[in-house]
Structures are given as structure tokens and as C-alpha cells.
């Protein structure tokens, strides 16, 4: 099935596209990284959702997030599969090429996990008496004990891989480490590793662990080279994962195209959430054009059925991927502000009212509402307290109130040692 085939996915018949606007039909060149959280974009292109809205998605598989960022900035891409912090970083002028970027649509929640080498995990078990059913927090504390032992014996610090400095993986990895009493900037060495290379790097001993999106954690565990010790749901269930990024000038010049794209992605996300479609989705994602990983692993990942290691230890996580439910696609500014809080916590950004406003402005719920209407939009405030209910708690139990951002960052026992100097307009 190719990107121009039109299919009524509910009735199984060819359907006509919506009437085209004065903007005319659009071919949108879209960059993506081979991860399961690109599913909504891929399904929109391949199962007729984009075509029904008069759009064609020309999907381009890329090799790194820096490439995706730069190709969007230099107008080689119209839209892009991006890490949720990337538009926030761009709004703050962070990184090597901080070109203005916004997001009107999140591609869902979930998909990340932290994997350590089997050698390191066995040492954690021996040192701390860690059980096979240990929680994410228990695992982090056991890792801290091993690191202390390594310091005493003069061993080099472990090298841990994540995908990009401004990524959910970096902040989630750091959150997990710090919750266990580990300083990510002193006690370990964090390096950037492209997602498809993480399993091989772990097997070769180039890294000792990684935080990355599916399916690469389970690829490592199935190979017997890694042990999954925490997932995104353990750290913060509602954390936005990937988003659709675009240049603000492009969005302003093509308002109807943006709305049609959001409608198409919303329909594709709803389809991806339906377990009845997961066999078809897994088969598509396994294709060499997309993820090029074993179809059975992708199918297990979609179901949240984890092989934690090669010894048969398993875990089932409900809604490990949430593509549509619970307003998973809504670009909520308070979540952008939490991302900003972590940038401040780890010394990537200074804190000011203007910076907080810039960070929040990268997420555009107004464009989402314009496309889908108020009845399909959350009824609570765009800026709310995050992580304050039983279904959505941070692993350390600390909720995030955007109105108390300075106090929130200062309250962490482990954070950057760089000077914490808010300007005269504190957030």
C-alpha cells in the first residue's frame, strides 16, 4: 500500500478525498526517525487518512534528530517527527541551529524505556539484593550503590546513551538517575547515540545503558545484552513524547493545510490506538522503509508486552503506547513548561518570565482547536498542575505547578551545579 492509496478504514472501501481548498492539494515532505512513535505519521500516509484530506505525506527516513531539526530549518522538510522538547529548545534559542519551530499536535505518549547492560544489572542485584520485580525507583537506588562501589575501587564511570540533549530521553534518564541520588553530570557519562544504534553499542560495550524509544529497548533485551529497568510510565505517564514540528511562518502561510493535516493525524491516531489494527500497523512499521525491525517485537511493543531480559522475565504495561486516548495529541503548554523546568534544572537554560512565555508558546493548542473544534478539546486549562493524581504521578511524587516553577526547580536535591540565577522577571 502506498502513500496515495485512499481507503475508508472503517468500511474497507475506497473513498473520495474531501473537497480541496483554494490552497490546492499539498504534498508535504515529512522527516522521521525509525521509531514506533512515528506510527501516526506513517499510518496517515499509508492508510489513506492524509489523502482523504487532500494531502500527500512524502515520508523521509532520517538518521538523527539533529538532521531532522536542520532539514526542517533549511526548508527541506515541511513538517517533521520531532522530540517533544525540540520546539521548546528552539523557542529559547538553544542548540546549534535554533530555528523557530512550533507544534500543533503531539504524536502520543509512551514508548521510552531505560535499559542497562546485563552485566551492570547483575552487579546491581548482587550489591543491593535487587529482585527481578524491582520498581524503577528501587533500580535507581541499586544503581547508586553500584556507582558508589565503583568510585571506591577507582573504576571508570559508566557511559550511558540517550538520543539528543533536548529530548524526553535525556530528561527522563536524568529524572530516574536523580531520583536514586545519582548526579547525571558527575556520577555517569551521558553521550548521544542514534536510536537504531543503541542495541549494537550496548552489545559492543561502547555504552553501559541507554534511554531510547521503542522498539530498541526490547531488541536489546531479546538479544540478551540488556535489561529494561524503567519505562516512561514509571517516570511520568503523561509526558509528551514526539510531536509534529513545523516552522511558524509555514503554518501561518498555510492555515488550511495545517488544519487538514491535524484532522488527518487525529484520525490516524485514533486508528493506531485500536488494538484490532495493531497487526496491520506492526507489519507496516517492520518494513525496511520505516523501522526495519522484527515484526513480532513491534507487535509486542504495541501491546505493552515486554521481555525485560533474555531469561524470560516479562512485564505487561497497559497503554505503553497511547496514540490518541486521553487527549494524548493535545499540545498542552503546561507540559512545555515542565520541559523548560528540566532545561533549567540541568543548566541548559536560565529562568525568566520571558523564557517561560517563550517555552509555552512553542506548543500551539489554538491550531489544534481550530482544526478539531472545542468539543474535541480538553475542557481543563491549557496550563495546569501536572502529575497530581493517582494515574499520572511522577516517580518521586512531586507534582509540577507552573505557577511555582522557581520553587519547583530549587526543590530538587539533585540538579545542576551551575549558578541558579533567575533574572528580575522570575517565572
TrEMBL record:
InterPro entries: NrtA/CpmA_ABC-bd_dom (IPR044527). Keywords: ATP-binding, Cell inner membrane, Cell membrane, Membrane, Nucleotide-binding, Transport. Residues 1-22 are annotated as: Disordered. Transmembrane segments: none annotated. Residues 7-21 have a biased composition (Polar residues). Pfam families: NMT1_2. One of its GO terms (cellular component) is endomembrane system. It comes from Rhizobium azibense. The keyword Transport applies. Its main location: membrane. This is NitT/TauT family transport system ATP-binding protein. One of its GO terms (molecular function) is ATP binding. It comes from the Bacteria.
Amino acid at each position: 500500500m502506498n502513500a496515495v492509496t485512499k481507503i475508508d478504514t472503517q468500511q474497507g472501501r475506497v473513498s473520495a478525498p474531501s473537497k480541496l481548498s483554494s490552497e490546492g492539494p499539498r504534498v508535504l515532505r515529512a522527516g522521521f526517525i525509525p521509531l514506533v512513535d512515528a506510527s501516526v505519521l506513517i499510518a496517515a500516509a499509508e492508510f489513506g487518512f492524509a489523502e482523504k484530506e487532500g494531502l500527500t505525506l512524502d515520508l523521509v527516513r532520517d538518521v538523527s534528530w539533529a538532521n531532522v531539526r536542520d532539514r526542517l530549518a533549511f526548508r527541506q522538510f515541511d513538517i517533521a517527527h520531532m522530540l517533544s522538547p525540540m520546539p521548546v529548545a528552539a523557542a529559547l534559542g538553544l542548540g546549534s541551529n535554533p530555528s523557530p519551530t512550533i507544534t500543533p499536535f503531539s504524536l502520543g505518549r509512551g514508548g521510552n524505556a531505560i535499559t542497562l547492560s546485563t552485566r551492570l544489572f547483575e552487579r546491581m542485584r548482587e550489591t543491593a539484593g535487587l529482585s527481578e520485580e524491582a520498581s524503577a525507583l528501587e533500580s535507581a537506588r541499586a544503581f547508586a550503590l553500584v556507582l558508589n562501589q565503583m568510585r571506591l575501587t577507582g573504576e571508570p564511570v559508566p557511559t550511558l546513551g540517550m538520543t539528543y540533549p533536548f529530548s524526553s530521553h535525556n530528561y527522563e534518564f536524568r529524572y530516574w538517575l536523580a531520583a536514586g541520588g545519582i548526579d547525571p553530570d558527575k556520577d555517569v557519562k551521558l553521550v548521544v547515540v542514534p536510536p537504531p544504534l543503541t542495541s549494537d553499542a550496548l552489545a559492543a560495550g561502547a555504552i553501559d545503558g541507554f534511554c531510547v524509544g521503542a522498539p530498541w529497548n526490547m531488541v536489546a533485551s531479546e538479544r540478551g545484552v540488556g535489561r529494561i529497568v524503567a519505562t516512561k510510565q514509571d517516570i511520568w505517564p503523561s509526558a509528551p513524547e514526539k510531536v509534529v514540528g513545523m516552522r511558524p511562518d509555514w503554518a501561518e502561510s498555510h492555515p488550511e493545510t495545517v488544519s487538514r493535516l491535524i484532522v488527518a493525524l487525529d484520525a490516524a491516531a485514533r486508528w493506531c490506538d485500536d488494538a484490532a489494527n495493531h497487526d496491520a500497523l506492526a507489519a507496516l512499521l517492520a518494513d525496511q522503509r520505516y523501522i526495519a525491525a522484527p515484526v513480532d517485537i513491534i507487535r509486542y511493543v504495541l501491546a505493552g508486552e515486554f521481555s525485560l531480559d533474555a531469561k524470560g522475565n516479562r512485564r505487561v504495561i497497559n497503554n505503553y503506547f497511547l496514540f490518541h486516548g486521553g487527549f494524548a495529541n493535545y499540545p498542552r503548554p503546561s507540559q512545555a513548561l515542565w520541559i523548560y523546568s528540566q532545561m533549567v534544572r540541568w543548566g541548559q537554560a536560565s529562568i525568566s518570565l520571558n523564557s517561560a512565555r517563550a517555552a509555552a508558546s512553542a506548543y500551539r493548542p489554538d491550531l489544534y482547536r481550530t482544526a478539531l473544534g472545542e468539543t474535541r478539546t480538553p475542557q481543563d486549562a491549557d496550563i495546569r498542575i501536572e502529575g497530581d493524581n493517582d494515574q499520572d504521578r511522577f516517580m518521586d511524587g512531586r507534582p509540577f505547578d507552573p505557577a511555582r516553577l522557581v520553587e519547583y526547580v530549587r526543590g530538587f536535591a539533585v540538579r545542576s551545579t551551575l549558578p541558579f540565577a533567575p533574572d528580575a522577571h522570575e517565572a
